[in-house]
Amino acid sequence: MPEIRSENGRFFMEDQGQTVAEITFSSLGDNVISIDHTFVSPQLRGKGIAEQLIRKVIEYAREENLKINPTCSYAGYHFDKFPEDRDLLN
Questions:
Q1: What's the pLDDT band for 2 if we cut at 50, 70, 90?
Q2: 37-73, pLDDT tens digit by residue?
Q3: Which CATH number fits domain 5-84: 3.40.630.30, 3.30.420.40, 3.40.640.10, 3.40.50.1010?
Q4: Which residues contact 20 (CB under 8 A, 6 or more apart)?
Q5: Mean pLDDT, rounded, for 3-13
Q6: pTM score > 0.85 for this model?
Q7: What mean pLDDT, rounded, does the chain reach?
Q8: Rounded to whole angstroms, how far apart are CA atoms 54 and 61?
Q9: Which helix (H) or strand (E) is 88 found in, with range?
């Protein structure tokens, strides 16, 4: 399985130079980020990749003292399912 990498505004996985999974986020100012988009390619779905990606954003937000606005549907689902992470909600 490809390694999760990061660059400004996203955590992602690549396979042979192609992005096969990613989660993107952007700053809304005032120490708030918005999780905009989550994508996992069909061949990797059902393996917990999206959860791993959102956990990376959560870890980043905690380290940087940021709040999260879960704009994308998967992020909203995550915060509904895991109340222990709701302290990060804006």
A1: confident
A2: 999 999 999 999 999 999 999 999 999 999 999 999 9
A3: 3.40.630.30
A4: 2, 13, 14, 40, 41, 43, 44
A5: 95
A6: yes
A7: 95
A8: 10
A9: none
Assign 65 to helix, strand or coil: coil
Q: Which residue has the tokens 């660059």?
A: 7
Radius of gyration of the chain, Cα coordinates, nearest whole angstrom = 13
Provide the b/e sequence for 9-48 (b: ≥16 CB within 10 Å). Answer: ebbbbeeeeeebbbbbbeeeeeebbbbbbbbbeeebeeee
Structure tokens at 58: 């959560």
Per DSSP, helices labelled H in 8-90 are: 49-63, 73-81
85's CB contacts (< 8 A; 6+ apart) are: 58, 78, 79
